[in-house]
Amino acid sequence: MNLVSTVSSSNDQRPFPRVFWIALLLELLERLAYYGVYVNLAVYLTGTVGLSDIENGSLLGVFALVRSWVPVLTGVAADRIGFRRSLAISFVLYIAAYAVLFLAPSRAGAWVAVMGMALGGAFLKPVVPGTVRRYAPEDRRTIGFSYFYASVNAGSVVGKVATKIVRELVSLRASMINAIVACIIGLAVTIGAYREPRGAADAAPEMETEPASTEGARDFAAKAPASAISDIVAALTKLDLVLFLFLISGYYLLIEQFYQTFPTYIVRSFGEDVPREYITLINPAAIAVLQVLVARLTKKLPAGYAIAFGVLVASGSMLLMGALPTLVGACFSFFVFAIAEMIFSPRYYEYVSSFAPRGREGLYMGLAIVPAGIGGLAGGVLSGRLVARYLPKDGPKQPLSVWGTYAAIGAGCAIVLAIYATFVKRRPDADATNA
Hints:
By secondary structure, this protein is mainly alpha-helical. 77% of the residues lie in helices and 0% in strands.
């Protein structure tokens, strides 16, 4: 049977439910705020707040860890209290965090604000892909995750552009107001428009379906004792899932280098005046425009092999950065990595969700973020050593040694993932009947 013709003739006509599109709008608003702040957060913390480089690095390191690992717990909470409540908590935390960052640019204020950002993201991260998993028509789930990832990158583009405009017209500190306004709108949309369909066939029994409903709270009170820990333990006993998440950490080591290595590489190789913000926009802009097309072109690939292929393309991006050490090379590297993300990310969430029993989507979407913490931590340690040795402030630079090392790690990771996909066969909803 021809999959493309089957989908186009029938399943592509099935509409996504309203809650799906509301969730994507909320993701866009949250990413608009987040990337609008994060793109200049290090500069703001060292310049406006006055942190030293060491303090700044420590704070951002803890931030990466919290934003990646706490979603395991908040994913469980989202399953228990309902996705709508979790979204509301997220936007309240974000509003408070960005307000503190704007109103109290001090050391204490910076720690409070940045940790608030991490916790706000932790409450939202499992919910939107969890909504896609629950409510996208089964045969359109891959495209649904593609729309999700396109909304992430559309928010990134809008947020960074808006921040640059406000920073140039007013000040960097004033650009924090963009994030506050976006999150206030997100909170209003959550309260006024996010509704999970009543009686959906694949909805968790404890999910919230109506505003001000007490059903979610009653279920949480009845099931909370030790249930979160038991759910996490049950997930972590799936050795195939644990191995997969460990291997995926290699991909996140690569992607973190656009924040951990790239700024230093650009400044030390080409000078302070290079518009690196515009270069970073190549990645999300390409994804926002091409994501759905690339997803359609690669949808016949089994998810495991698509993920391995995406990691291989990402390693090629790293190699291109080092082999062509020019601004043109950097631009092409960002574009190639965008292709890698378009192949990898929708299929990654789809693949992890296949491990999730009904009603535990939030937990497993939280687990999907854990490799980012592992890869970010390992990548930070490696980046510092490689930059110190091959990209010193003074003396000859050897960018190929830096980026070639990352490329080798990515290629090795891709090979192992392909082997994994060969021997660990999964099908969509493989664990759905085990709830």
